[in-house]
Design goal:
heterodimer; A: alpha/beta; Peroxisomal Thiolase, Chain A, domain 1; seven-stranded mixed sheet; 7 helices; about 35% helix; B: Non-ribosomal Peptide Synthetase Peptidyl Carrier Protein, Chain A; about 0% strand
Chain lengths: ~200, ~80
């Protein structure tokens, strides 16, 4: 397997293939909105997404600076995403609105599952490949490799993987695209330095 | 009535997170669920919440929703007709 591209997004910076491409102003109230604007994307649905989906959306948009996803057929891209805290932030927001404010927002409720983000990506990119979202105790590259191997055994040619976390204390997104190419060991790639050390 | 319509436009933008729009972008007779605004079924539910929370109005017959939520004009007419 080969890592074709990686990116990470933090409230402070955006890194693409190991190089910082943006420093986000520290006084920015809504850093994800700032990144959205900086990418010159027109996708109004972005503003309706929860934080997890926004992070995934932005991550893909950053990767598109390096990757031409149109080289894959719509059913050839698989999505493998995971995190530790599931959709806790959106769950809690919905719970507080419902129990304490007597307010129910359908658009909040719809995001009370983490795998909604893979659906948002599939809709945005019009991809029809397999997609999965896992809740893991910690980032585990071997787990991602296992899942990618399974997808590669089907019709999938590239797996877009991601670790996306959003809670009151931390917001982070790490995305990496892997292709089924032989001869390159995944763990020797930039991925390890970029992702494993920071997450765990 | 025109004051109500302007208020509605602002409420729609806020409730539906239409951050890319201003009230001036929403014409009174523009179909809210046409291509221009790109609203979806979740937005339709948000309209129901908006009416209930801001005007105390409930849609008792779901089939009425299509007509009530057609435009700002129809929304305002429904509110004017039913608000106590």
């Amino acid at each position: 397997m080969k890592v074709v591209a990686t990116c990470s997004l933090f409230p402070e910076e955006i890194v693409l293939n190991g190089k910082k491409i943006e420093s986000i102003p520290s006084n920015e109230v809504d850093w994800k909105k700032w990144v959205y604007s900086s990418l010159n994307i027109e996708y109004p649905k972005f503003h309706k997404m929860d934080s997890l989906a926004k992070l995934a959306f932005l991550g893909i948009s950053v990767l598109e600076k390096e990757i031409d996803f149109s080289t894959y057929k719509d059913e050839e891209v698989g999505l493998i995403f995971a995190n530790k805290y599931s959709s806790y932030y959106s769950d809690n927001k919905h719970f507080i609105n419902y129990t304490q404010k007597n307010m129910v927002s359908p658009s909040d409720f719809v995001y009370t599952l983490p795998n909604i983000l893979t659906g948002e990506i599939a809709i945005f990119k019009k991809w029809y490949g397999d997609n999965v979202f896992f809740i893991l105790k910690k980032f585990d590259i071997e787990f991602f490799i296992e899942q990618a191997e399974f997808m590669f055994s089907k019709s999938i040619k590239a797996c877009l993987c991601g670790w996306i976390e959003s809670n009151e204390n931390s917001e982070q997104a790490y995305l990496f695209l892997i292709e089924n190419k032989e001869g390159i060991v995944l763990k020797d790639e930039i991925l390890e330095e970029l992702i494993i050390d920071k997450i765990n | 009535m025109s004051e109500l319509k302007e208020k509605l436009k602002a409420q729609i933008i806020e409730q539906l997170n239409l951050e890319n729009l201003t009230p001036a972008d929403i014409k009174n007779d523009m179909p809210l669920f046409g291509e221009e605004l790109g609203l979806d079924s979740i937005d339709a539910l948000e309209f129901i919440v908006l009416l209930e929370q801001n005007y105390g109005l409930k849609i008792t017959n779901p089939s009425e929703g299509k007509d009530i939520f057609f435009s700002v004009d129809s929304l305002a007419a429904f509110i004017e007709k039913n608000i106590v």
